[in-house]
Amino acid sequence: MKEQKNRIKDLLILTAEVMFAENGYEGTTVRDIAAKAGINPALIYYHFESKEHLYRSIFELRLRLLTDSLNALPVNATASSFERLLSYVTIYIAGIRDNFYFYRILNSEIFSFRNHSFKTAILDTVKASADIFRKVVKTGIAGNEFRNIDTDLFLMTLFHLLHQIIGRSPLAGELLNLEEITEEQINGRIKNFICHQLCLPVHPCNNSHNKSINYHEKYN
C-alpha cells in the first residue's frame, strides 16, 4: 500500500513538473495534471492538498537533492580552490541536465515577481546552495589563488550563465552556436570563463588562455 502511494506521488510530481515548466504555474490546473497522469483529480488533493502544495513539493525534492549532492562531495585536502569549485560546478551542471524541466521552473521563479507563501523558502534554499560556492571562492581569495573580486556578482553571473547554457535557452543557442559544438567543448568554455574571471595570471589554468581565445574566435 505504501509503495503504491509513493508511486502515485512520484508520478504526480514528474507529471506536474513537466506541465509547470511548459505552461507555467497559472497555466496549469489540477485537472490538467490529473488528465496527463491518467488519474482521478481527487488523488492530487489526497496526496498534496492543493496545486500549490504539489508545486512546493517539487521544489523541496529537487533542491534537497541538489544540496545533498553538493554537501556529499568528498573533501580533497590537496585540491586547489579552483579544482573544488569546478567539482561543484560539475555537480550543478549535472543537476540541470538531469532535471531540465525543474530548472525551467526554478528560472521562472527566481526571475519573477510573483509572490506566494513559500517564495522565501525557495530563495533561502537557493542561497544555501550558493553559500557552498561562495565559501570556496572566499577561500581562494584568502589564499591568493583568486583575484579579490566581488564574489556575489560573480556567483550571480555564474549561475545565470549555467542556467542559460546548460538549459539551452534560445539566446544562448544563438550567441554560442550550441547546436554546432559538443558538450565537452561547452564545458571547456565554462571552465575557461571561470578561470579568467577568478584566477590570478600565474594560475596553471591560464595556460589554456590562448586556446580559449582561438576557440572563441572560431565560433563567433
TrEMBL record:
Keywords: DNA-binding. It holds the Pfam family TetR_N. This is DNA-binding transcriptional regulator, AcrR family. Gene3D superfamilies: Tetracycline Repressor, domain 2. InterPro entries: DNA-bd_HTH_TetR-type_CS, Homeodomain-like_sf, HTH-type_Tx_Regulator, HTH_TetR, Tet_transcr_reg_TetR-rel_C_sf. Residues 6-66 form the HTH tetR-type domain. Signal peptide: none annotated. One of its GO terms (molecular function) is DNA binding. SUPFAM superfamilies: Homeodomain-like, Tetracyclin repressor-like, C-terminal domain. Residues 29-48 bind DNA. Coiled coil: none annotated. It comes from the Bacteria.
